[in-house]
Design a protein that fits this description.
The structure holds 3 protein chains of 3 kinds. Chain A is of the alpha/beta class. Chain A contains 5 helices and 11 strands. Chain A has one domain: Rossmann fold (3-Layer(aba) Sandwich), CATH 3.40.50. In chain A, 22% of the residues lie in helices and 26% in strands. By secondary structure, chain B is α+β, with helices and mostly antiparallel strands. Helix content of chain B is 36%, strand content 23%. Chain B is built from 26 helices and 28 strands. The longest helix of chain B is centred in the C-terminal third of the chain and has 21 residues. Chain B starts with a helix and ends with a helix. In chain B, 62% of the residues are buried. Chain C is α+β, with helices and mostly antiparallel strands. Chain C has one domain: Phosphoribosylformylglycinamidine synthase subunit PurS (Mth169, Chain: A, 2-Layer Sandwich), CATH 3.30.1280. The longest helix of chain C is centred in the last third of the chain and has 16 residues. Chain C is elongated, with a radius of gyration of 16 Å. The relative contact order of chain C is 0.35. The model of chain C has no long low-confidence stretch (mean pLDDT 89). Classes of the chains: A alpha/beta, B alpha+beta, C alpha+beta.
C-alpha cells in the first residue's frame, strides 16, 4: 500500500508520520508542498506542525499551496485523505471538511494523553476496530472545534462525527473536553467518509516506550482496511 | 558624530577601556568602530570578569569532542554519533518582555546547536521567578512559559525537562536559561573557524532590522529606573523562519560547501564575523550595502549591531554560491554574498563605496580587557543547633502538606503541559521525572538530560553549593539509568563589580570545578550572566547545570513511579539529619541560617556508580534521588506517580523522625527492588561499602509511617498537584 | 459610546505574520504588494457619553492593557 505525506514549510510531525506509516506496512513517500502532482497513493496524509508558523489562521496559508489543488482533486475523486492536528486545520481551511478550529478554551497549548470514543465505524478508517475507546495524544493550541448549528445537524444526520473526547470508560462529558470543542468533537469526516480530520496524533502512540500503543492498533487496522 | 569619552561611556565602556581603544588604534575610533568595540568588549561577549576563573574548569575527557569556545560543546555517544549541547541565559530581555525574551532565548540556543550541524532533539529550561506574592510574578511566569512553548513547539523540538523556582531575590531579575541538545554524526560537525583567502562570506536567514541594537550591552548592565528607555532593544522571535533556517542549513550541510558557519546571536553581524575571522587568523571584508535590510536607511552602525533573530553567517567554498542560493531560495530565505575573507587581519567595512571601519581583529578579541576582580570569601556558616524538643511539636502530615505544596516542590505540570514534549516520537521519559530521556532515533540508545540549580545552598556557602549542583545533576542522570558524560553551565550572578557577588561567582565556579573533576563530568559549554541586579540588590547566586548522559539500551531506562505492591524500598546513602538550609528549616522553622548539607565527593561517586551497577543488572524497578524536602518528599513523589502507597518505619537511628524524613543530606537515592533480589542487592551494596536503610514496602493506596501517620495517595496528590494551577488561574 | 482602536506593531519591530502573509499573497499571484503589517482591532463600548473623555478612557486601556507598548502602537480610529 502506498501513502504520501505532504511536507509544508513548517510541518514538524511529517517525519513521525512517515515512521509510523512505514512501521505498519505502508510504502510512504514525502511530497513537497510546492510540487504540483501527487504520486500514486492509496492514502494522503497532511501532518501536524505549524505549516506557515500558524500565522493569520492555522492552516490558512497551507490550504493555498500548490499541492493542495491535487490533494483536493484526489479527495473529490474518493481518495483517502487524513489530516492530523495542523493537517485537520488545513482540511478545514481548504473546505474539505466543515467547521473551524478555534484557540483552546483556556488559551493554552495542551500536550497530553486523552481518551477518544469512535462514533462511527462504517468507514475505511475505523471499520473492524474491535474497541471503541482509544487513548490518543494531543498537542495543540487551536483544537477547539466549532461549526454552525446547521452544519452540526447536517454532520450528525450524515454520521460525520468521527471521534469525541471522553474518559477511559467512553463517557462523553464536558469535563473530559480538553479544549472547549463543540460537543466534545475531536475529529470529523467529510460526507463521503474518505476524508478524516482529527486533532489527536495516533503517530505518537506506536510504541510501548512512548505514550502508549493505541496508535499501533489504528494504523494496523487502517492498512488492513485499505488492502 | 565625533566620538569622545562621554559617548564611549554611554556605550557602557569604562574610561580606561576607551583610552585603551584609542591607544590600540592609535587614533580616535569613529562611531561604527566604537559600537563594534563596545559590543565585543562588554561582559556578555568578552567574559572579561569571568575568563580568569572559567579557565580553571575541567573541560576535557575521553568523551569530549569539543569543549567550550565553540557555538556549543560536543560529546561522543559512540557508533559515530555525537551530542551537541549548550545552555544559555536570556534573563534581561525576559524581564522586559517575557514572551519575546523567553522565545528568542530558546531560538538562540537552538541556533547555536544547529550551527554545528546537529538537528535539535530536545529542549530544556531553568526558569526562576520572584516570590509568588510579588505582583509581577504571575504575568512574568505566564509570558515566559508561553514564549518558551511558542518557539519550541513551532520548531517541533520536544521540551523534555526543566526546573522552575520562586525566590524573592528574583523579584526584579528573573532568570530564563534555555538548553538544547542536538544529534550529529561525528564526521559531520561544523565549526566557526574560517579558512582560506577570498572565500565568499554569505548572509542567510531573516532580514536585518533595528531590533535589539545593543542587546549585548543591555545584558551587561544592571537594571535601574531607566529600564523603560531600554525597551526598544527587545527582539521579536519568528520560530517559523527559524524552522526554515534549520532545514535549509541542514540541507546545505549535507554537502561539502561550508568552510565555517556561525549564528548571529548577541552583537549580531559584529561578533559572528569577527569570531570566524579571529579563529581562522584571517581578515574579513564586508560590504554593508549587500546586507538584506528590513528597514530603509539603516546605518552601518545599526547594521553591525542589530540583533535581529534567525540569521546566520557562512564562509563558503568558492564556486558553491549558486548551489547554496538554490537551497535558501527553496526555503524562502534571504541569501546574500556580503563579503570575503582577506589576509589583512582586519575587519574592514564598506558602505556606499566608502570604507566606514577598519579595525585589527586581535584588538577586539585577544586584546579585549580581562579583569581580576576583587572578591570576598564566604565563611562556612555555623551549624544551627535546632533543639530536639522543638521538632516534637510538628505533626508529620501537616508538615508534609506544606512541603509538597511548596512552590519549589509542587508539580509543574501546568507548565510542561504547555510544551510539546512528545513531538519527534522519541521521548521516553517526559517532564516530571529525574531527567528527560529521548531515544537516539532509529537506535537502541537514549540520551538523558537534566537541568538543576540550588540557589539557596549556593547563597549559604558558594563553594559547597557549586559542588552540590553538579552532584544533583549527576544523581538525576543516574536515577534514570544513564551514565553521566558532561555538563554545560549557565552562571547567573549579580554584579562582578561588587566583592560579595564576585566572591559568590569565584567560589561557585571553584565548587563546580572540584565536583566535575572528581566525578569525571567535564564542562563542555556554557555562558555567564552577570549584573542580575536591580539597584543594590543582586540575585542569589544561581549556577544552572545542564547534565547529559547516555543509556546504551533504552529498555533499561528507570522511572520513579513505584511499580509493584510488596516490592521493597531502600534508601541508598547515609542519612545524618542535616536540617540547615533545608526546605523544612527555612519554611517550617523559619530558620534561614546555617550551612548547606555537606558534599562528600567520594560517597557521591561511589553511591552513584553502585546504583548504576544495580540498574545494569536489572535489579532496580524504580529510582529517585533524594533532594529538597528530604526522604519523605522523594517517596511521596514515587507514590503519586505510581499510584501506590508505602508502609515504612524510621530505621533505628539517633536522629528524630522529623530529621530523618525532612533532612537534606546529599548523595542519597530511593530505590525499589523485588523481594527475591534483596540478598543480591545487599551484597552489591556491601561490596562497594555503600550505606543503605531498608525503609519499607510498597502497598496499595496509603502512606503509613511508623504505624501512626497515615496519608492517602489522593491526599498526597492534592497536596502536590494543585498549587501551581490554582495560582495561575 | 463606541470607541474603536487599532493596534499595530511599531514601525521597526519585526512582524513575522505580516511577512509570511506577504509571501503567500505573492505566491497566489498578488504580485503588487509592497508590505503587509498585521494588527488587532478593538471595539469598546464605554458608558461615557463625552467623546473626548471616552477616547481618553480607551487610550488609558491601550496604555495599560490592550497594547504592549514595548513593541506595539495604538490608534483610536473611530468614536461614535
Amino acid at each position: 500500500m502506498k501513502s504520501a505525506v505532504i511536507t509544508f514549510p513548517g510541518s514538524n510531525c511529517d517525519r513521525d508520520m512517515h515512521v509510523a506509516l512505514n512501521k505498519f506496512g505502508f510504502k510512504n513517500q514525502m511530497v513537497w508542498h510546492n510540487d504540483n502532482e501527487l504520486p500514486k497513493s492509496d492514502l494522503v496524509v497532511l501532518p501536524g506542525g505549524f505549516s506557515y508558523g500558524d500565522y493569520l489562521r492555522c492552516g490558512s496559508m497551507a490550504s493555498k499551496s500548490k499541492i493542495m489543488q491535487s490533494v483536493i482533486n484526489f479527495a473529490k475523486s474518493g481518495g483517502l485523505v487524513m489530516g492530523i492536528c495542523n493537517g485537520f486545520q488545513i482540511l478545514v481551511e481548504s473546505g474539505l471538511v466543515p467547521g473551524v478550529l478555534l484557540r483552546n478554551k483556556y488559551l493554552e497549548f495542551i500536550c497530553k494523553n486523552v481518551f477518544v470514543k469512535i462514533d462511527n465505524k462504517d468507514n475505511p478508517y475505523f471499520k473492524n476496530l474491535d474497541k471503541d475507546v482509544f487513548e490518543f495524544h494531543i498537542a495543540h493550541n487551536e483544537g477547539n472545534y466549532f461549526c454552525t448549528n446547521d452544519q452540526l445537524k447536517e454532520m450528525q444526520d450524515n454520521n460525520q462525527v468521527a471521534i469525541y473526547y471522553c474518559n477511559d470508560n467512553g463517557k462523553i462529558e464536558e469535563k473530559f473536553n480538553p479544549n472547549g470543542s463543540l460537543k466534545n468533537i475531536a475529529g470529523i469526516f467529510n460526507k463521503e467518509k474518505n476524508v478524516l480530520g482529527m486533532m489527536p496524533h495516533p503517530e505518537r502512540m506506536i510504541d510501548k516506550s512512548l505514550s502508549g500503543e493505541d496508535g499501533s492498533l489504528f494504523f494496523k487496522n487502517l492498512i488492513n482496511n485499505i488492502r | 558624530m565625533e566620538v569622545n569619552e562621554q559617548i564611549a561611556i554611554d556605550h557602557g565602556l569604562k574610561k580606561e577601556e576607551y583610552k585603551k581603544i584609542c591607544d590600540l588604534l592609535k587614533r580616535v575610533p569613529n562611531l561604527t568602530e566604537l559600537g563594534i568595540f563596545s559590543a565585543m568588549w562588554n561582559e556578555h561577549c568578552s567574559y572579561k570578569s569571568s575568563r580568569l576563573h572559567l579557565k580553571k574548569l575541567p573541560t576535557s575527557g575521553k568523551k569530549v569532542i569539543q569543549g567550550p569556545g565553540e557555538n556549543a560543546g560536543v560529546i561522543d555517544i559512540e557508533d559515530g554519533d555525537a551530542i551537541v549541547f549548550k545552555i544559555e541565559s536570556h534573563n534581561h530581555p525576559s524581564f522586559i518582555e517575557p514572551y519575546q525574551g523567553a522565545a528568542t532565548g530558546v531560538g538562540g540556543i537552538m541556533r547555536d546547536v544547529f550551527t554545528m550541524g546537529a538537528r535539535p532533539i530536545a529542549n530544556l529550561n531553568s526558569i526562576h521567578f520572584g516570590s509568588s506574592q510579588h505582583k509581577k510574578t504571575k504575568n512574568l511566569l505566564r509570558g515566559v512559559v508561553h514564549g518558551i512553548g511558542g518557539y519550541g513547539n513551532c520548531m517541533g523540538v520536544p521540551t523534555i525537562a526543566g526546573q522552575t523556582s520562586f525566590d524573592s531575590s528574583y523579584n526584579g531579575n528573573i532568570l530564563v536559561n534555555a538548553m538544547t541538545l542536538g544529534l550529529v554524526k561525528k564526521n559531520k560537525i561544523f565549526y566557526s573557524k574560517a579558512a582560506g583567502l577570498n572565500k565568499p562570506v554569505i548572509y542567510v536567514g531573516s532580514k536585518t532590522g533595528r531590533d535589539g541594537i545593543h542587546g549585548a550591552s543591555m545584558a551587561s548592565a544592571s537594571f535601574d529606573e531607566k529600564i523603560e528607555e531600554k525597551k526598544p532593544t527587545v527582539q521579536v522571535g519568528d520560530p517559523f523562519t527559524e524552522k526554515l533556517l534549520l532545514e535549509a542549513c541542514l540541507e546545505l550541510m549535507a554537502g561539502d560547501s561550508i568552510i565555517a558557519i556561525q549564528d548571529m546571536g548577541a552583537a549580531g553581524l559584529t561578533s559572528s564575523s569577527i569570531e570566524m575571522a579571529s579563529k581562522g587568523n584571517l581578515g574579513i571584508e564586508l560590504n554593508l550595502n549587500k546586507v538584506p535590510c528590513r528597514e530603509s536607511k539603516m546605518t552601518p552602525y545599526e547594521i553591525m549591531l542589530s540583533e535581529s533573530q534567525e540569521r546566520m553567517l557562512i564562509v563558503l567554498e568558492n564556486g558553491k554560491e549558486d548551489l547554496a542560493k538554490k537551497i535558501f531560495d527553496k526555503w524562502d530565505l534571504d541569501f546574500a554574498v556580503i563579503g570575503k575573507t582577506t589576509n589583512s587581519k582586519n575587519i574592514e567595512l564598506f558602505y556606499d563605496e566608502k570604507q566606514v571601519a577598519s579595525i585589527p581583529i586581535n584588538t577586539l578579541v585577544e586584546n579585549s580587557p580581562m579583569y581580576d576582580r576583587k572578591w570576598k570569601k564566604t565563611k562556612l556558616p555555623k551549624k544551627n543547633l535546632i533543639k530536639k524538643e522543638d521538632l516534637k511539636k510538628f505533626k508529620i502530615k501537616e508538615v508534609l502538606n506544606k512541603i509538597l505544596s511548596n512552590p519549589n516542590v509542587c508539580s509543574k505540570e501546568w507548565i510542561w503541559q504547555q510544551y510539546d514534549h512528545t513531538v519527534m516520537g522519541d521521548t521516553i521519559q517526559k517532564p516530571g521525572g529525574d531527567s528527560g530521556v529521548v531515544r537516539v532515533h532509529g537506535t537502541n540508545k537514549a540520551v538523558a538530560a537534566t537541568v538543576d540549580s540550588s540557589a539557596i545552598y549556593c547563597w549559604a556557602h558558594p563553594l559547597t553549593g557549586g559542588k552540590q549542583v553538579v552532584c544533583e545533576s549527576w544523581r538525576n542522570l543516574i536515577s534514570v539509568g544513564a551514565t553521566p558524560i558532561a555538563i554545560t553551565n549557565c552562571l547567573n550572578f549579580g554584579s562582578p563589580e561588587k566583592e560579595e557577588n564576585m566572591g559568590e561567582f569565584v567560589e561557585c565556579v571553584k565548587g563546580i570545578g572540584e565536583a566535575c573533576e572528581y566525578l569525571k563530568f567535564p564542562v563542555v559549554s556554557g555562558n555567564v550572566s552577570f549584573y542580575n541586579q536591580t539597584k543594590e540588590i543582586g540575585i542569589k547566586p544561581t549556577p544552572s547545570i545542564g547534565g547529559v548522559g547516555l543509556i546504551k539500551d533504552y529498555k533499561q531506562m528507570i522511572t520513579m513511579d513505584f511499580k509493584e505492591i510488596n516490592n521493597l524500598v531502600l534508601i541508598v546513602g547515609k542519612t545524618e539529619g542535616h536540617l540547615d538550609q533545608s526546605l523544612f528549616a527555612r519554611n517550617i522553622l523559619n530558620e534561614k541560617n546555617g550551612p548547606p548539607p555537606e558534599i562528600n565527593l567520594f560517597n557521591e561517586k561511589n553511591n552513584g556508580e553502585t546504583i548504576l551497577q544495580l540498574i545494569k543488572k536489572n535489579l532496580v524497578r524504580s529510582a529517585h534521588d533524594v533532594s529538597i524536602g528530604g526522604i519523605i518528599t522523594a517517596v511521596s513523589k514515587m507514590c503519586i506517580k505510581g499510584n501506590k502507597g508505602i508502609e515504612f518505619n524510621k530505621p533505628k537511628y539517633f536522629i528524630s523522625e522529623i530529621e530523618y524524613l525532612f533532612c537534606e543530606d546529599q548523595g542519597r537515592y530511593v530505590i525499589e527492588i523485588e523481594p527475591k533480589n534483596l540478598k543480591k542487592v545487599i551484597s552489591i551494596l556491601g561490596e562497594n561499602s555503600v550505606h543503605f536503610d531498608e525503609l519499607g514496602r510498597i502497598i496499595d493506596k496509603n502512606m503509613i509511617i511508623n504505624q501512626k501517620t497515615k496519608v492517602t495517595i489522593d491526599e498526597l496528590k492534592s497536596y502536590n498537584t494543585n498549587w501551581l494551577s490554582e495560582y495561575m488561574n | 459610546m463606541k470607541v474603536s482602536a487599532i493596534i499595530t506593531l511599531k514601525k521597526d519591530v519585526l512582524d513575522p505574520q505580516g511577512k509570511v502573509i506577504h509571501q503567500t499573497l505573492d505566491g497566489m499571484g498578488f504580485k503588487d504588494v509592497n508590505e503587509v503589517r498585521q494588527g488587532k482591532y478593538f471595539e469598546i463600548d464605554v458608558k461615557e457619553n463625552d467623546p473626548k473623555k471616552a477616547q481618553k478612557i480607551v487610550e488609558d486601556m491601550c496604555n495599560k492593557l490592550l497594547a504592549n507598548l514595548v513593541i506595539e502602537n495604538y490608534k483610536i480610529i473611530e468614536i461614535q
